Amino acid sequence: MYMSDPAQSNEKNHSQSYHTEPIERSNRMDVLKFMIPSLVGILLFMIPLSIQGEITIPVALLANWVQSAFAGVLPIFITVILMLTAVMTAITKVFKPVWILEKPFLKGLFGVSTFWFLARIVAAFFAVLTFYESGPKFIWSGETGGLLFSDLIPALLAVFLFAGLLLPLLLDFGLLELCGALLTKIIKPIFTLPGRSSIDCLTSWLGDGTIGILLTSKQYEGGFYTKREAAVIGTTFSVVSITFTIVVLTLVDLQHMFFQYYLTIVLAGLAAALICPRIPPLSKKPNQYFEHAENHWDEKIPRHTSSFKWGINQAVGKAKNTKWRHVIKGGVQTFWICG
């Protein structure tokens, strides 16, 4: 259920559930609207696949295809995007055009602090030097700017393209509501986190840590996590994936020790997730929600209601209230902001 900001003591707390009628009365189309996108999201982000002897996830497979298919144009595209972003940020900073400031998305994209304004200008300048391989070699060489420009940035761009467009399948159709209701009694006392954070964890460990971070960021901005919870999830839950583990083992020719290696990672990860949230600096993070979030999520389950029934009701209600046009718009905006 949603609750008002606890920091605003002069406002009366209120709660709102997505769906309170018995699941038996739910429209079958609403149930399918919850189940199908959620299952597709799980398949895309959490299910490792073996493709030509390599372990990967479908989203990473799509990202690799984009990198291969558009390898020749990605450097040009990246340079243009960085230059356009720098120019638009400068225009917003200096001239403050109304047509940008009155639109929340454009304002959030280009109305940044002085630090990020300078960072974008420098990034665009370095991108041009690297693209043309001009200026000091230490800027554009294969060990510095060239490495970022040719390998890292195209990979991140491709990942964020599909993650931004497809993450709503995990976020907006009730899967997190169901997991939150089912797991909050376990996750909360052990890891001091909401039950819905289990999806962030699974996405990172089974899928990709970068996608887990993006998922957590979206949840924080939506008012589902506090600053402390988002920091804990981002540092202790979104660590290393099975796919990356296999890549590392392949590079050092230790594939035969996968079980021992990954068991060590799991044990170390669990220890970190248990201890780190209870000690500084994570324990000192404020339990405050994102200031621009309209509502704040509370996973309390009503008395005399089972966790499963409440979770299903909430999930179906969430899916019912989700509009596809908003999902598509939000996905595109996420890609532009992160990419």
UniProtKB/TrEMBL annotation:
Comp. bias regions, Polar residues: 1-19
Annotated ranges, domain Nucleoside transporter/FeoB GTPase Gate: 156-252
Keywords for this protein: Membrane, Transmembrane, Transmembrane helix
Coiled coil, from the record: none
Annotated TM spans: 34-53, 65-88, 109-132, 152-176, 230-252, 258-276
Region annotation Disordered: where it falls in the sequence: 1-20
Superkingdom: Bacteria
Name used for this protein in its record: Nucleoside recognition
